[in-house]
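S2.1 Query sequence (Glutamine--fructose-6-phosphate aminotransferase [isomerizing])
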Amino acid sequence: EKSGFDHFMLKEIHEQPETLRRCTAGRLTETDIELANFNLTAQDINSYNKIYIVACGTAYNSGLVGKYAIEKLAKIPVEIDVASEFRYRDPLVDESTLVIVVSQSGETADTLAALREAQDKGAKVVAICNVVGSTIAREADDVIYLQAGPEIAVASTKAYIGMLMSFYMLAIYFARAKKTLSDIDSKRLIDGLKALPNQVQDIINNSEEDIKELSKGYADHEHAFFIGRSIDYAVAVEGQLKLKEVSYLHSEAYPAGELKHGTLALIEEGIPVIALATQKSVIDKTLSNIKEVKARGGVVTGIIIEGEEEIEDLDYRIEIPKADELLTAILSVVPTQLLAYYVAVERGCDVDQPRNLAKSVTVE
Ligand code: F6R
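Output structure tokens follow.
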């Protein structure tokens, strides 16, 4: 049931505030994260010298954010790999490694094979998963369910946001077990998590019409670029995947600092560039990259924090509410989802069933 929306993808984008509420229900106390039926002990968590995140597609992209969060808060080095690479390369995994697999469906063949490979090598596996009772959920040693409800559109939106929330909770949980996060900082982050559902709602309310308008300017293009630094780059990767998968517009994401190492050669008059610039610690660097793009005629849409009036050089501005620098991914991705959706509609694509793709990839 599309409940009045034209497509499931749009319905699921609109469900995201609720997805976040359900994902956090019963799991956030004042200063801690509670994960029911979680078997990993504080002693286990303290024994890991490395974490591997393994997944495919959008689930992999959520892991790019997960890596930042876990390394920053829990100070455990994190490697990330796509499942179809991990499983065939004899990965360096043993009892001192924790493997986190991420899968909406819980049935993705390569992710399941990676889970089994990791367990064969003696590692414990935590699954971040949506479908209850799926194979990956059953075989993992621990599961964090997204509680997102069924996701029907092939392009994943609400599951991605649930994955991000799960990674944030897991990172705080690990950090508390490792005592690398004080009560005060933990409370501040958890308060930040609690604010996210309403902030996502505000973004949808305030920017959907503008993005719909903006999408008309994208429809005739063949290429688009997404740039950002740190967590903004992780979100850029998801933004470009969503745009290309539903609208068939070729898009690529680059760390903003990599532009001048090759990609800048492709920036010419009129090329659309989505610049994510929400990270205060690197904002000056990102702004100088935006200048470089503008100087070559690129048309830049900035996704920025509200009130940053000094950010110039943007052709279009999409503002998101203020949030902790680590948590902005859950906010900045929303405009990229809406953009992908409206560009696809504008180009007459079959939004909910993109060509050649399936919701659950059970063959390798
Ligand atoms: C993109 C998309 C795919 C899936 C990927 C993994 O929107 O939906 O990239 O994310 O096939 O699927 P799961 O999460 O079910 O393992």
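Residues 56-59, 103-105, 108, 111, 155-156, 241, 245, 360-361 surround fructose -6-phosphate (CB under 6 Å). The chain is about 45% helix and 15% strand.
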